[in-house]
Amino acid sequence: MTSPEFRATLGRSWRLLGDFRHEQDDPDRFYGSLAQDSAAQVSSYADLTGARLLDVGGGPGYFADAFAARGATYVPLDADAGELALHGREPGPRTVIGDGTSLPFADGAFDVTYSSNVAEHVRHPWAMADEMVRVTSPGGLLFLSYTLWYGPWGGHETSPWHFLGGGRAAERYARTHGHRPKNDFDVSLFRTTAGRGAAWARSAERRGLLREVRLVPRYLPVWAGFVASVPGLREVACWNLAIVGRRRP
Ligand SMILES: C[S@@+](CC[C@H](N)C(=O)[O-])C[C@H]1O[C@@H](n2cnc3c(N)ncnc32)[C@H](O)[C@@H]1O
Predict the structure, then answer these.
(1) Of all atoms in ligand 1, which is nearest to the CA of residue 58?
(2) For an engineered disulfide with 31, which of 60, 62, 124, 217 has Cβ 3.0 to 4.6 Å away?
(3) Is pLDDT above 80 for 93?
(4) Whose CA is closest to 192, among 119, 83, 140, 115?
(5) Could you write out the three-class secondary structure of 198-239?
(6) From ligand 1's centre to the CA of 80, what distance in Å?
(7) What is the set of domains in the chain, with CATH numbers?
(8) Ligand 1 atom 3: the closest Cα is on which residue?
C-alpha cells in the first residue's frame, strides 16, 4: 500500500523553503527534512516495505535513514567518497562507489530507482536516466529529480548570477570568494533543463521503457502541478523537476 500521509500542500512547500535556507548553517535540519519529505513522496507512488531501492548520487546518508525507516533496503551509489562523509556522516552498509552513467548492477536489480539533485551535476544526465531505467525491475518505480538551470537556485551558490551566464557567474564567485565554486559551471554543474527532461521522458515512453510517466514540480503544491507541462514557464517556475514513471515489463 502506498503512503496516504504525503500531501503536497502549500504549507509543505513553505516548510521546505524555510529548511532550504539552513543548508549551510544547519545541514542536519536541511538534509534531514528533505530526506523525510522525499521518502514520503516516493512512498506515495510505491510501497517501500521490503523494496530494493537504489539512490544514485545519494550523498551524505540522510536519505538512508529516511528510506530505511519506511522498510526499504537502501543501496546508495555515489561517484565521490568525500561526499558520503560530509557533515560528519559515515557511509552506511551497501554503499557503492560508482558512476551513475554506468551502473554496476544487473538489469532489473531494483524495485525503486531514485535520484535527487544529481542530474544537474552530470555531463550526460540522460545516459544516467537510461541506466536507472535499465536497473529498474519490470513494474518498478523510477523517480529522477533535479534542479532546473533556469530556476532561482539553478546556479547553486552562484545564483542568481547564473541568469547572466554560468561561466560569468562562476568567475564572479571566484573573484568574490577567492576560490572556484564547488558547483562550477561546465565542470560540476550543467545547464539541465525541464525541456530536456521532458524530451527524455517522451523518448523513454516511445522506446517502450516507461509507462505512467509524470512530470512533477517536486517542491510545489499539488495545485501548481500544471506548470511542469508548460514549456518556458516550467523552466523558471518549477525549481526542481521530478520525472516519475513505471518500468515496462
Ligand atoms: C547535490 S548532491 C545530492 C545529494 C542527495 N542526493 C540530495 O538530494 O541531497 C549531488 C551528489 O551527486 C554525486 N554525483 C555527481 N556526479 C555523479 C555521478 N556521475 N554518478 C554518481 N554520483 C554522482 C555527488 O558526488 C554528490 O554526492
Answers:
(1) 6
(2) 62
(3) yes
(4) 119
(5) HHHHHHHHHCCCEEEEEEEECCCCHHHHHHHHCCCHHHHHCC
(6) 8
(7) 10-148+192-247 (3.40.50.150), 149-189 (no CATH)
(8) 117
